[in-house]
Please model this.
Amino acid sequence: MPAMSSLAESLRDQVGLLDFDDTEALIADQIIGSIDEDGYLRRPIASVLDDVMFNYGLMITEADVERVLARSQRLDPVGIAARDLRECLLVQLEAMSDEVDGRENAIDMVRDAWKAFTMKHFDAIMRKTSMDEYDLKEAFDLVQSLDPKPGEGDFAFQTNYISPDFTVERDGDDFRFLLNGLNAPELRVNRHY
Model:
């Protein structure tokens, strides 16, 4: 029987594999709980900070939240928990291998010529970044291939787990057969009997 898993559960599982201390794990959990359906963190860092301090009585700083957020954005899908489209694209580009053609130019374009990029003012992008037309096309195509909404459609995805109908346990020299309650129908006894 397939099990349904949410993106939030998947992200929490991934956080469990990181070398976060308890405080960082709480911050990451607060960030994950604040992600919207498109995969963005729309809450201000100060609000995340206040929630952790209030709910857990921990003294943390905005720098602590920013540090955990930066690592959380590199979880799968990369770019999750970005605060805006620009940050989402930059995170995805920075996470790519250095060998990807156009990566450095794409980073420069998104970081240094964002307004011109959003308006497709290619001449302005080339002036600001010192790219030629070939490099611009390569960088632009690379950015176009990125996922602008890393959480969209992934908040419930199917994981194929097998749930057995029954299990067998050894009890000394005897064996016990236990039915899995997930597959058994609910039984009721009529009060009349």
Remarks:
- DSSP finds nine helices and four strands in the chain.
